[in-house]
Amino acid sequence: MAHLTDHIILRSATTDDASALSSFAARCFQETFGPDNKPSDMKAYLSNAFSPAIQAAEIADDAAIVILALDDRATTGQLAGYAHLVTHDTDIQLKRLYVDASWQGCGLATRFMDRIFEECRWRGTDRLWLTVWTQNHRAIAFYEKIGFRVSGAETFMLGEDAQTDHVMEMAVPQIVTRISD
User: Fold this and answer.
1) Cβ distance 70 to 80 under 8 Å?
2) Are 79 and 100 in contact (CB under 8 A)?
3) How many Cβ atoms from other residues are within 10 Å of residue 30's Cβ?
């Protein structure tokens, strides 16, 4: 039986992907957080976080790993999601993980996490961490399900609004196991 995610190709981003990623990332962020925030705060954040130039710089950063999920049925390789990791001396930060609303619930986040764990193991790190808005209950539930635990908090500025994010971390699984959404 074929799964919907069988049509997804995960690949590393290149700077040629910056423009498409910029539009996709801004749209996903707006769809996810726009309804719960002031339009002026969203506009300020989006303009400072997701321009094509910023995406190109993030992709080109030697400490970054940007993974794209592309639907191979679309002639243009339509984006279905992306992950942005940042390597540090002894750990890796999952800076962003977004899946298009039309792909949520079909296992794509699981595919991303499997790939992220592979990256961690390949780079010899055993700790993965992230920050997530305390009001993003769906994401928190997913991260807890796969083994992340809250280890602290930090402030995230969305425009002029200071929001609280959980800092969550986990030990990278050294044995490959399937997780599910």
Assistant:
1) yes
2) yes
3) 17
* Chunked mean pLDDT (size 10), the chain, 181 residues: 67 96 96 95 93 96 96 76 95 96 91 95 94 96 96 96 98 70 52
Provide CB contacts within 8 A for 56, sequence distance 6+.
15, 18
Instruction: Give the residue from 84, 106, 97, 85 showing the smallest Cα distance to 29.
Output: 97
Is the domain defined by 4-126 classed in CATH 3.40.630.30? yes
**pTM given for the model:** 0.90
Tell me the C-alpha distance between 51 and 47, whole Å.
6
CA triple 73-77-81, angle to 5 deg: 100
